[in-house]
Write a structure and sequence with these properties.
With about 400 residues, this protein is α/β, with parallel strands linked by helices. It is built from 13 helices and 16 strands. Bound molecules: zinc ion.
């Protein structure tokens, strides 16, 4: 029985399960013999590991697969679409939901408009809980059993305690998101919360336009501007997990007031609220009390002005592009990334923003042009952080497959 095995044997077993699962994810479906050959594990060990992964529903058997040119073909093993995860991003003006199975196939994806400014914390958490219930039920309806859920929030997050320490643009301070959300959910479900830019950076690193780039910085282009840095293939978190508050880099000593209470933060120069305020002031944030538009609707209106070559609009977007390059140069000086991936509205308006941004980056970065760093527009849109949230659950599942209960 496993419970009588010494602890170190259990740890080895767990590591081998993870290694096998990770191999199947990277290499695709293969026979037990092929897995043994690629991982260096003994064939009988692989057979036993696969049996356990099958019992935990993490893999499924496929048809016959050849492991090479010689020998009998064996039954193939592939990742199972039976288990899945959900990520939900709660931002100033939208909730983005992404649900996928273990293979990465999207099962649920949507964004709904949401007005954090008009909801108190309890109200926001109610909406979040409702979105979570709905997404989890949709997975189940599609025959995918959810194992976990991660919430993405634009702010400083204490990941270990599941608490949002401060989220200036939401007006949150010390909000226990995980304990509050877990109350109404299946106790077996793993619930987590993390910073939106960190999760989006993980999504970019796994699925995005610069996937696999060991050194990249991701920028969220929403009302707040956050950054997630992947350094040498790992997400940089800092001593308290609070790194990445790039939007609050002080770039202008006497500048506009920021949501964080300081003045002259980078976010006041390049955030979505500033873009809207300068180009389509009649749709500025905080105006009126009608239904709140989705960020994409605001951006579409800005694009109409730009496409009509409205000189004031073109002038404003060029100025924002320059500020984008200014902050980008600071990031390049700090992290020496290969690419700076632009998310949110930065990606939508990349054709208008990039020329000025790239020129400013090249002009201001110390290591330029030797560093060969450039901006690229993300193609994950406003759901990058939600996708990263689901991805974080899957990553934990692969790191320790024994956290998923065996059936039967
Ligand atoms: Zn600030």
């Amino acid at each position: 029985m496993m419970s009588t095995e010494p602890a170190d044997q259990l740890a080895v077993r767990r590591a081998n399960l993870s290694r096998t699962l990770r191999h199947i994810r990277t290499a695709g479906p293969g026979s037990r013999a092929a897995i043994a050959a690629a991982t260096g594990l003994h064939k009988t060990t692989v057979s036993s590991l696969v049996e356990e992964l099958l019992s935990r529903r993490l893999v499924r058997e496929t048809g016959l697969e050849r492991s090479g040119t010689a020998g009998r073909p064996g039954r193939g093993v592939a990742l199972s679409p039976e288990l899945g995860a959900v990520g939900i991003e709660l931002n100033v003006d939208y909730l983005a939901v992404h649900g996928c199975d273990l293979t990465g196939r999207t099962v649920v994806e949507r964004r709904v408009s949401f007005d954090a400014a008009r909801r108190d914390v309890e109200g926001c958490l109610d909406d979040l809980a409702e979105a979570a219930d709905q997404a989890l039920a949709e997975l189940v309806a599609r025959d995918v059993t959810p194992v976990g859920l991660t919430v993405a929030v634009p702010g400083l997050v204490d990941v270990a305690r599941g608490v949002v320490v401060v989220a200036p643009n939401l007006g949150w301070r010390d909000v226990p998101v995980v304990s509050r959300l877990a109350k109404g959910l299946d106790p077996g479900l793993r619930v987590g919360v993390d910073n939106d830019a960190n999760l989006a950076a993980l999504a970019e690193f796994t699925w995005g336009v610069a996937a696999g780039t060991a050194d990249l910085v991701y920028l969220t282009g929403s009302v707040g501007v956050g950054g997630g840095a992947i350094v040498d293939g790992r997400l940089l978190r800092g001593a308290d997990g609070f790194s990445g508050e790039i939007g609050h880099l002080p770039v202008e000593p006497v500048g506009d007031p920021c949501g964080c209470g300081r003045t002259g933060c980078w976010e006041t120069k390049v955030g979505l609220a500033e873009l809207v305020r300068r180009i389509t002031p009649e749709f500025a944030y905080g105006l009126g009390d009608g239904p709140i538009p989705d960020p994409q609707e605001r951006i579409a209106e800005v694009r109409r002005r730009l496409d009509a070559r409205d000189p004031a609009a073109v002038d404003a977007v060029t100025g924002i592009g320059r500020w984008l390059g200014h902050g980008g140069a600071i990031l390049v000086n700090l992290f020496n990334p290969r690419v700076v991936v632009l998310g949110g509205y930065f990606a939508d308006l990349a054709d208008h923003l990039l020329p000025a941004a790239q020129a400013q980056l090249t002009r201001l970065a110390m290591a330029s042009p030797a560093a060969r760093c450039h901006f690229v527009a993300s193609d994950l849109g406003f759901t990058a952080a939600a996708r990263g949230g689901a991805g974080a659950v899957i990553e934990r599942m692969i790191d320790d497959p024994t956290t998923v209960p065996a059936t039967g």
